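<amino_acid_chain>
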Amino acid sequence: MAIRVLSSELVNQIAAGEVVERPASVLKELVENALDAGARRIDIDIEKGGTALCRVRDDGGGIAREELALALARHATSKISALDDLEHVVSLGFRGEALPSIASVSRLTLTSRTADASHAWSVRVDDGRTSEPSPAALPAGTTVEVRDLFFNVPARRRFLRSEATEFQHGHRLIERLALSRFEVAFYLTNNGRRVLSLPAAVDRPAHEQRVARICGEEFLSHAMHVDHRAAGLRLHGWISLPTFARAQPDLQYWYVNGRYVRDRQLINAVRLGYRDVLYHGRHPAYVLFLEMDPAAVDVNAHPTKLELRFRDGRTAHDFVMRTVETVLRETRPREDGAGPGYKATIVGSGAAAGVGAGAAAGAPQVSLPMRGEGQARLDLRELSARYGVGSDQSLAVHSEHPAHSGHTAPTGHGAPNGEESFSASEFPLGFALGQLHGVYILSQSADGLILIDMHAAHERVMYERLKQLAAGTAGAPQSLLVPVAINVTQAQADLAEEHEAQFVRLGLELDRLGPEQLAVRQVPALLARVDIAALVRDVLDDLAEHGTSERLADKANEVMATIACRTAVRANRAMTVNEMNALLREMERTDHADQCNHGRPTWTRISLSELDRLFLRGR
């Protein structure tokens, strides 16, 4: 076949293959155009899953009569004019491909009116032919109506799913966009029936109402608010408590400078932030917004703009990971009485607690039982001397007596005597009453009853203490008597040389023996018995993909978590009230104490009002 120049119509249809995959793709392009035009209200109408009709109406700036035809031309845009503009782009669209691509595979009508125009103007595109502008009735703004999608490309239509499936894709797309612009009202109608109504949200409570409407009330009730600024970056939004982990990553929303993205680096950063508190195979839920200098991120790296390219990906990755880690560290019993499900906000480089579901402002002082004083010890199984704990040792758990705060201890067999009291905020987990079936600790708190899983709670306390030990002598490097030879690819060997300084910081000493062989001469003491060859290969894979690696820290934490699980107090271990109270005090000052190392909750509260409802008190 001879070389020939393709017709403009065919070029548009080929381009539509990248831009218009299904009706949801049409909605994405049209709604993003409306947002770029400054719309404050967007109405979306869908019929037959979007194949019969996709109509988007907005109250944005509108398009002048003389520019209507130009808006339907390829590579015509008002958002950039030079390469420098592309490097600082903040609009959602900028290529000038969407409208002509959509028009080439549908029957499109574009109607618009600027604020200073006496009336609107409309143009139609049908089978590649664009009409002359004609007068129309419309308030200020723009309406784009797309009918009979893929009518002239039947092969594409055969790849579409059922009407219900296509509508669900469109519905989820509108929800994602609605989360990116809280100040804009969104209304979605399907086959004449209103299915989504999201008024403009102008403050934090209204934002949370929209999040709850889209992600579910349960997510919001198990979420912590985040707002952290550092190094020219800002991360804000909501992350779920570890106990709200999900089987699928289906409730994860990432936005960078207002654009919804699916970026592997950012997803990995959040995953690493949760690594200490989730079941294996479980996924966190979150709605997160990263704001940064537009010049520091390339949004033109993917046809659908869903993937990004950071100028300094490692800085962004570490900022997100450390922020999530810091927030999750506060998931422990709070002095404000907040239990699992509380909301915390991290601002700047510090964290401040929010108000929890069980918090009671100005809670009354009550009399709580406390027996014994000073230091208690929990009997623990043997710990290997390798990890800094001798075989004849147990880890001490300290108890603070109320007398230390100027109060005297209640007397008697553990029941409140009504004579001595202290502020319940000092002891959010209250004081032990006894054990239940040798598994749970029952504790009386200021506003009800608390149940603690003693093994899970002690496991977390032990794990956090082992991590502190590992940061000292247990994490020191250990030279190997016989170096470990590792066969790798030449690219991996080159990468190991390039990142030699980072390996040293991780406690690994590597030498290159040949083009495709490395030798490990030194490892962290805690990892002396793991498969070091497999671990080094994993680190190299991470460095190739992300430019950084947390594999060694993950492996060390895995070892310590196993030790903590095996040495924590077991079921049917009889504990004294003093030992139980000592464990409660340790939980109150231990990071991540709301869940064990596997992500299970360590405690829960039943309030007095809930108990009263159970027994119909007051009725």
Observations:
- The domain at 426-619 is CATH 3.30.1540.20 (formyl-coa transferase, domain 3).
